[in-house]
Amino acid sequence: MNKILFVTAYMPSDIGAAVKYTKSILDKLSKKYCIDLIYFTNKGDENEYNNCELNSVKSFDVSNWSRLAAILSKPLVYPLFSVRYSLKVKEYIKKMIDSNSYDLVFFDHSQTFIYGKDIDKKKILMSHDVILQRTQRSSLKVLSKLCRKTESEYLSDSNSTVFTFSEKDADLIRDIYNIKAICTNANIDENAIKSRIDEVKNYYVSFGYWKRPDNYEGLLWFVKNIFPKINNGKTLKVIGGGMSDKHKRILSEYKGVELLGFVDNPYNIIANSEAMISPIFSGAGVKFKNLEALACGTPIIGTEIAFEGISRRYSSFMLEANSIDEFIHQISSKLPDIDQRRNMKDDFTNSISRHEIIEYIDNYMNKLNK
Q1: What is the total count of domains within the chain?
Q2: Same domain, 32 and 147
Q3: CA distances (Å), origin 244, targets 18, 55, 61, 260
Q4: What is the pLDDT of residue 116?
Q5: Which helix (H) or strand (E) holds 311?
Q6: What percent of the chain has pLDDT over 90?
Q7: Between the ranges 9-13, 32-36, 40-44, 306-310, where is the mean pLDDT highest?
Q8: How far apart are CA 235 and CA 152, in angstroms?
Q9: Does residue 18 carry a pLDDT above 90?
Q10: pLDDT tens, position by position, 244-273
Q11: What helix, strand, coil percent values describe the chain, rounded to 5?
Q12: Does the keyword tRNA-binding apply (predicted)?
């Protein structure tokens, strides 16, 4: 059986879109290949990741002190790329590679790319977003220059193939770094695809992992500045884990806001809502939650950043709003009816059936085995 070393920056789980993607990829790969997994855990992570089909699982804790030590140890590397670096992890990866005949090493998230520099094996680099684009939106010019240098160095690593979740990010990597990247479909939860649109009900939804500042800050902005002006007896159901007790208390003060927390299968709630609310003002890359909303047949009212990397083919369900007045206008406008939602849902789910990264790995392994 072909062997893969899989290194990811976060614990695979169902609590957030990116980590759910990782969990799905591991589930698929472990049915075909012998997988050794390395992942990093943050304070507050619950439980451990268990998959009985994996050959081995090793986790490393990340703390504020370890982050600081990592950044200081690599002063010429942009911090996002070095924040999970340690000699202990580097030596463990080296030991695993020296003692196993891996056919492929898979680095998931840009924070792990630093470990691929000295590895003379076939590598996949899964770039969840173009870090330079995120940096240019929020950092000083000097940091953007450092980010460009670091990202270019890691993406151009020898014997590597780069994957992204959108043609937009693939184009950015080509245009900025002159590196070819392959676009692969993001994983869409089967429950989103199977969700039923029975009746559009009198509520909106916001969905995400609320520990991320990108998500929470946009939600708070919406709840403070817009929702009191448009609720008229409607509710805003906030779905997803990771929200601090402090943030829960703040949001609970607003009339009509329902904090549902983590919901194992939230997709029928999303499918029967009036719209998904997605006010995101920072960050970069494809927003998985909005892809899953489209898979539910649900229109999305969101900012320009919320729709990055999503095909304009679905623009009638992607209602852009970047200010208070624009959000109020879009919410007050006529939204797609049930038949339109069902038709769009069928069209969207039919278009996402391929997983190019799995096909790439299968083809590569088949060539090795000939």
Answers
A1: 2
A2: yes
A3: 20, 35, 20, 13
A4: 94
A5: none
A6: 66
A7: 32-36
A8: 46
A9: no
A10: 999 999 999 999 999 999 998 999 999 999
A11: 45, 15, 35
A12: no
Same domain, 158 and 194: no
pLDDT in tens, 235-244: 999 999 889 9
Find the domain containing 119 and state its range: 3-185+355-369
Residues 175 and 30 in one domain: yes
pLDDT of residue 214: 86
* pLDDT score for 366: 92
235-239, strands of its sheet edge to edge: 257-261, 235-239, 203-207, 276-278, 300-302, 318-320
Q: Are residues 268 and 305 in the same domain?
A: yes
Task: Name the token pair of 19.
Answer: 């980590």
Number of H helices, E strands in the chain: 16, 13
Q: Are residues 130 and 199 in the same domain?
A: no
Q: What is the mean pLDDT of residues 47-76?
A: 88
Q: How is residue 335 annotated by DSSP? A: P
Residues 226 and 334 both lie in one domain: yes
What gap in Å lies between CA 38 and CA 239, rounded to an integer?
Answer: 29
Same domain, 21 and 164: yes
Is the sign of the CA dihedral 25, 29, 31, 36 positive or negative? negative
Please check whether residue 174 is in contact with residue 187, taking contact to mean a CB–CB distance below 8 angstroms: no
For residue 195, what is the domain's CATH number?
A: 3.40.50.2000
* Whether residue 93 has pLDDT greater than 80: yes
Q: How would you label 223-243 residue by residue, b for 16+ Cβ within 10 Å and e otherwise?
A: beebbeeebeeebbbbbbbbb
